[in-house]
Every structure is written in structure tokens, then in C-alpha cells.
Amino acid sequence: MSVYVISDTHFGHTNILKFRDGFDSIEHHDRTITDNILSVCGKRDTLYMLGDVCVYKDSWKYVEEIASGVEFLHICLGNHDLERKGSPTLEDYMSVCKSVFGMKKYKSAWLTHAPIHPDELRGKINIHGHTHSNNIMDNRYFNASCENIGYKPVNIATVI
């Protein structure tokens, strides 16, 4: 019964391959990340996905597979979620998730897609994504973007 976090999976987003090495197609990219998530998270675990989850509905099957492989899936919407025609809808997200949110307090952390301003931390840390491999050099911030964590979810207790 562990809790994990990952961000910026970008399922279906072919343009992301320009910035991520080691993938020969978007299918390879999406399958690798899904397999990595399910190799770490199990049926009794909770997963927080912090935005830019699935850009096109064609890749929604990966989110459904992840949702069926964990006890609870929570999604923080990012700037690429619900962005365009052909994206999964809010109803799609709500049909497989325990919660869909923009910002959430979890124990001593704020869970967000983009990092929040330091004045808004209020004694907590910020676990976020959005910045991909660009990290904020401040120990109050943890970047859970796929590139930053080896494309595998990390245990939130370890981060906190």
C-alpha cells in the first residue's frame, strides 16, 4: 500500500520524441512508460500522475491500463490535458480516476503540474512536473517529470 508519483507521460504526443532519447516510435514510448509504471505500482498502490498525461484519445488505452493496475489513480491536469480536439475529455479522466484536480495538498507536500511560487509553499514542498529535465535548484521542489525520474514512478514517502 504505497503511494507513487510521476508526471509528463505525454501519451500519444509524437512531438515529445524530439526531446526524449531512446524511443523509436510513440507506441514504444507509451508502452515503455506504461510497463514501467505497472512494474513499480501494484493493485494495492496509489498513483498520482501530475499532468500532461495523455495528449490524444488514441493513446487513452494506456491510462485505462494503468488505472486497472493500481488501487487508486489520481490525476492533476496539466497544460496539455484537455488541450485540443481529439484529447481525452474530463469525463474520460473522471471515469477511471479516484480524483482529478489542479492542485492538491498531500501530507507535507503540494502536488501540482507546474511548480508553484515559493511564497505559496507555506512550509510544504512542491512535487511537480512540467519542467521536464529542468530542475529548480531548491530542496523544497521535486520534479517528477518522466525524464527526471528515469521514466518510472517514485515513492512519494521517499520524496517527502
Your description of this structure?
The protein has about 160 residues and is an alpha/beta fold. It has a single domain (about 5-160), classed as 4-Layer Sandwich (Purple Acid Phosphatase, chain A, domain 2), CATH 3.60.21.10. Helices cover about 20% and strands about 20% of the residues. The chain contains four helices and nine strands, in the order βαβαβαββββββα. It has a five-stranded mixed beta sheet with strand order 4-3-2-1-9. Strand 1 (about 5), helix 1 (about 25-40) and strand 2 (about 45-50) form a beta-alpha-beta unit. The radius of gyration is 14 Å and the shape is globular. The mean pLDDT is about 95.
**What structural category arises from helix and sheet content?**
alpha/beta
Q: End-to-end distance, in Å?
A: 16 Å
Helix content: 10-25%
Strand residues, percent:
15-25%
In CATH, the homologous superfamily goes by the name: Metallo-dependent phosphatases
> What is Rg?
14 Å
CATH architecture, by name, is 4-Layer Sandwich
The number of helical segments is 4
The beta-strand count equals 9
Number of domains: 1
So what's the overall shape?
globular
The residue ranges in which pLDDT falls below 50 over 5 or more consecutive positions are none
User: What is the fold-level CATH name, i.e. the topology?
Assistant: Purple Acid Phosphatase, chain A, domain 2
**Can you list the strand order of the major beta sheet?**
4-3-2-1-9
CATH C-level label: Alpha Beta
Q: Could you spell the SSE succession in H and E letters?
A: EHEHEHEEEEEEH
Average pLDDT rating: 95
Q: What does the main sheet amount to?
A: 5 strands, mixed
